[in-house]
Design brief:
The chain has helices at residues 15-26, 64-72, 86-95; strands at 5-11, 32-36, 41-48, 51-58, 75-82, 106-107, 112-117, 126-132. The chain is α+β, with helices and mostly antiparallel strands. The longest helix has 12 residues, at 15-26. GO terms for molecular function: lyase activity; metal ion binding; methylmalonyl-CoA epimerase activity.
Length: 135
Protein backbone atom coordinates (compact mmCIF):
# COMPACT_ATOMS: atom_id res chain seq x y z
CA UNK A 1 0.00 0.00 0.00
CA UNK A 2 1.05 3.54 -0.60
CA UNK A 3 2.08 5.36 2.55
CA UNK A 4 2.41 9.04 3.31
CA UNK A 5 3.36 11.58 0.68
CA UNK A 6 7.15 11.36 0.82
CA UNK A 7 7.73 14.57 -1.14
CA UNK A 8 6.51 16.81 -3.94
CA UNK A 9 8.89 17.12 -6.88
CA UNK A 10 9.07 20.53 -8.57
CA UNK A 11 10.83 20.99 -11.91
CA UNK A 12 12.88 24.19 -12.12
CA UNK A 13 15.05 25.79 -14.79
CA UNK A 14 17.64 27.33 -12.47
CA UNK A 15 18.30 25.44 -9.24
CA UNK A 16 20.23 28.26 -7.57
CA UNK A 17 17.47 30.78 -8.25
CA UNK A 18 14.78 28.32 -7.15
CA UNK A 19 16.73 27.54 -3.96
CA UNK A 20 16.66 31.25 -3.10
CA UNK A 21 12.90 31.40 -3.67
CA UNK A 22 12.20 28.36 -1.49
CA UNK A 23 14.61 29.50 1.22
CA UNK A 24 12.57 32.72 1.49
CA UNK A 25 9.25 30.91 1.20
CA UNK A 26 10.00 28.21 3.78
CA UNK A 27 12.30 30.24 6.01
CA UNK A 28 15.16 27.74 5.90
CA UNK A 29 17.87 26.52 3.55
CA UNK A 30 17.86 23.24 1.66
CA UNK A 31 19.08 20.40 3.86
CA UNK A 32 20.56 18.47 0.96
CA UNK A 33 21.67 19.00 -2.63
CA UNK A 34 22.47 15.97 -4.73
CA UNK A 35 23.23 15.01 -8.33
CA UNK A 36 21.36 11.97 -9.64
CA UNK A 37 23.39 11.00 -12.69
CA UNK A 38 21.00 8.24 -13.82
CA UNK A 39 18.22 10.83 -14.19
CA UNK A 40 20.45 13.70 -15.36
CA UNK A 41 19.21 16.01 -12.61
CA UNK A 42 20.49 17.95 -9.66
CA UNK A 43 18.14 18.11 -6.70
CA UNK A 44 17.67 20.19 -3.58
CA UNK A 45 15.55 19.04 -0.67
CA UNK A 46 13.69 21.31 1.73
CA UNK A 47 11.67 20.50 4.83
CA UNK A 48 8.28 22.10 5.23
CA UNK A 49 7.05 20.93 8.61
CA UNK A 50 6.86 17.14 8.35
CA UNK A 51 6.81 17.34 4.55
CA UNK A 52 9.55 17.57 1.96
CA UNK A 53 9.91 19.50 -1.27
CA UNK A 54 12.35 18.31 -3.95
CA UNK A 55 13.51 20.84 -6.54
CA UNK A 56 14.78 19.20 -9.73
CA UNK A 57 16.91 20.90 -12.39
CA UNK A 58 18.16 19.22 -15.55
CA UNK A 59 21.88 18.55 -15.83
CA UNK A 60 21.45 17.42 -19.44
CA UNK A 61 19.19 18.97 -22.10
CA UNK A 62 17.94 15.47 -23.03
CA UNK A 63 16.77 14.62 -19.50
CA UNK A 64 13.15 14.00 -18.61
CA UNK A 65 13.12 17.17 -16.50
CA UNK A 66 14.43 19.30 -19.37
CA UNK A 67 11.75 17.86 -21.68
CA UNK A 68 9.06 18.39 -19.03
CA UNK A 69 10.01 22.06 -18.61
CA UNK A 70 10.19 22.57 -22.38
CA UNK A 71 6.68 21.11 -22.79
CA UNK A 72 4.90 22.33 -19.64
CA UNK A 73 7.13 24.91 -17.99
CA UNK A 74 8.30 24.90 -14.40
CA UNK A 75 6.03 23.43 -11.77
CA UNK A 76 4.96 20.30 -9.98
CA UNK A 77 6.55 17.33 -11.70
CA UNK A 78 5.54 14.43 -9.45
CA UNK A 79 4.03 13.28 -6.18
CA UNK A 80 6.14 10.71 -4.32
CA UNK A 81 4.69 8.20 -1.88
CA UNK A 82 6.62 6.23 0.71
CA UNK A 83 6.29 2.44 0.48
CA UNK A 84 7.58 -0.38 2.67
CA UNK A 85 8.16 -2.87 -0.18
CA UNK A 86 8.62 -1.20 -3.54
CA UNK A 87 8.83 -4.46 -5.51
CA UNK A 88 5.53 -5.74 -4.07
CA UNK A 89 3.89 -2.35 -4.63
CA UNK A 90 5.02 -2.23 -8.27
CA UNK A 91 3.55 -5.70 -8.79
CA UNK A 92 0.28 -4.72 -7.10
CA UNK A 93 -0.09 -1.56 -9.18
CA UNK A 94 0.69 -3.40 -12.41
CA UNK A 95 -1.94 -6.01 -11.52
CA UNK A 96 -4.38 -3.13 -10.94
CA UNK A 97 -3.74 -2.01 -14.53
CA UNK A 98 -1.36 0.90 -14.01
CA UNK A 99 1.50 1.42 -16.45
CA UNK A 100 4.78 1.09 -14.61
CA UNK A 101 7.67 3.08 -16.08
CA UNK A 102 10.40 1.18 -14.18
CA UNK A 103 9.98 -2.59 -13.92
CA UNK A 104 12.88 -2.62 -11.45
CA UNK A 105 13.46 0.02 -8.76
CA UNK A 106 16.55 2.17 -9.18
CA UNK A 107 18.61 4.24 -6.81
CA UNK A 108 17.24 7.77 -6.55
CA UNK A 109 17.96 10.86 -4.50
CA UNK A 110 17.84 11.06 -0.71
CA UNK A 111 18.90 7.40 -0.17
CA UNK A 112 15.78 5.90 -1.77
CA UNK A 113 14.86 3.13 -4.17
CA UNK A 114 12.46 4.70 -6.67
CA UNK A 115 10.11 3.73 -9.48
CA UNK A 116 7.47 5.66 -11.39
CA UNK A 117 3.87 5.12 -12.45
CA UNK A 118 2.87 6.64 -15.81
CA UNK A 119 0.64 9.73 -15.49
CA UNK A 120 -1.82 8.52 -18.14
CA UNK A 121 -3.34 6.19 -15.54
CA UNK A 122 -3.26 8.64 -12.63
CA UNK A 123 -5.19 11.61 -14.01
CA UNK A 124 -2.10 13.28 -15.47
CA UNK A 125 0.06 13.07 -12.32
CA UNK A 126 3.42 11.29 -12.40
CA UNK A 127 3.59 9.13 -9.27
CA UNK A 128 6.89 8.12 -7.70
CA UNK A 129 7.26 5.26 -5.23
CA UNK A 130 10.08 5.64 -2.68
CA UNK A 131 11.54 3.07 -0.34
CA UNK A 132 14.32 3.90 2.12
CA UNK A 133 17.54 2.05 1.26
CA UNK A 134 18.68 0.06 4.26
CA UNK A 135 22.28 -1.02 3.89
Amino acid sequence: MLGKIEHLGIAVKDLDAANQVYEKLLGSAAYKQEAVESEHVTTSFFKAGENKIELLAASNPESAIAKFIEKRGEGIHHVAFAVEDIVAELQRLEEEGFTILNKEPKRGADNKWVAFVHPKGTNGVLVELCQEIKE
